[in-house]
Amino acid sequence: MTRKGLGEFLARARETRDMTQVELASQVGVGSGQVSKWERGLSLPAPRKLAKLAAVLGIDVGELAAQFAAAGQEDAVVARRELSDVRRDLEFALGEVTRFVDTYSEFHAEYELISERVESLTVDVSAIKQAILDLSGLVLRLLGEPDQ
Question: Which of 4, 49, 87, 97 is the most buried (most CB within 10 A)?
Fold first, then answer.
């Protein structure tokens, strides 16, 4: 039995007793919205409410418990399927993250190499500037002009 099937069973039992959802909810000790969710198959009654629910609806508690268990088993099957989907999605995401990290590592290594080269060029440019200043000072002295 599915949640929906259990919900339909509960709705028929309630209607057979000429009860509203509000009346059933009041007698079982839940909100009327909860009864609506049960009957639409959106949720299951709490196990501790089954005996009271069966008594109020005039149905056998064993039959209700069996249908509840069957609906719960269907939920377990659906949950396993959903977990399998989540696992597949997580494995895909992990693969993407791994590829990103590998790519980042390659780019990072290249960045470090380029950074070292730029630093080396910066030192070379500074040395060249100093050499030009030294040469221009020498040329000025040779020409007899004071250094600027």
Answer: 49
